[in-house]
């Protein structure tokens, strides 16, 4: 299940032609160049240079991420069934899609289906190898502490979603009593790639392998991700391995097109408008809020969280690089802005609406429940992030 698939619905683009996001970005980029008095060869040259500037790095991240996600989806025996809620953030990040994580865990979640939904959503946005790694690549940020900052933000953000669920009294009733199931340690085997990923990143953070290129690569996020993906694929039934890899190629190809268009847009934008005009120097808190708002606008306009990551980071990359804003703060400002909101133009809305909220009698109520929780999570994270920037922790 792909996070970039959306259900047609009323959104900010309701009254515009029904055109994919990438077409809009290409059209606006070219039009912006001509409005800015660039010559036709200059528009083409700038578009071409911008389009390919980051695709290699994204391919190194997205291919193994989606292969890992596809491999994990083959394990119908969910790991740690008695821990569905606790596992939801890890599943959201590891499957690189909150939809798939929720669909996997919700059948065993009982009354905690909404907890699983908000946990999967938060993990996808804040944990490696999902949101922070994708956004960091688009911004050109390589900070070994990013996974740690994501974990620190995760717990209060996740808690905000759980508190919201209880405040609106939306815990789903179980249709039949459930019997507690013991945890089968063998069912934890699908988590082995994540353990290896974490171990390699920890080794890379503690040791310098500059003289050993292969070891240096596999202890960096991109290389560690390839190792984890390879382990997950090998753990799949042999008949399913090619299908997993084909799925990874399809999902990567569509996102690379969006990323290329977004990067080209950023290249043209910076040619026409100075960085200082877009993000005033020295405005750390203002910069965080501005990037948060930018990600929010993208998310509201087209619904998909993954497409938001893919489009916003390359656009914001040149702006962040040309300012004195904290690169770590920039990464999580975009991740947190993409929380808002879970609306009917987001496939995740329909998945949860038809399952955990099937008994809710109106779409308005369902939107309030899901969007309210997402906003609570986003604002909790934003308050923590701006406080960290203000005191100089980030």
TrEMBL record:
Transmembrane spans: 12-34, 54-72, 121-142, 148-165, 191-211, 217-234, 255-273, 279-298, 327-345, 366-389
Highest taxon in the source lineage: Bacteria
Name of the protein: Permease
Record carries keyword Transit peptide: no
Species assigned in the record: Parasedimentitalea marina
UniProtKB keywords: Membrane, Transmembrane, Transmembrane helix
Pfam families per UniProt: GntP_permease
GO CC terms, sorted: plasma membrane
InterPro entries, per the entry: Glcn_transporter
A GO MF term: gluconate transmembrane transporter activity
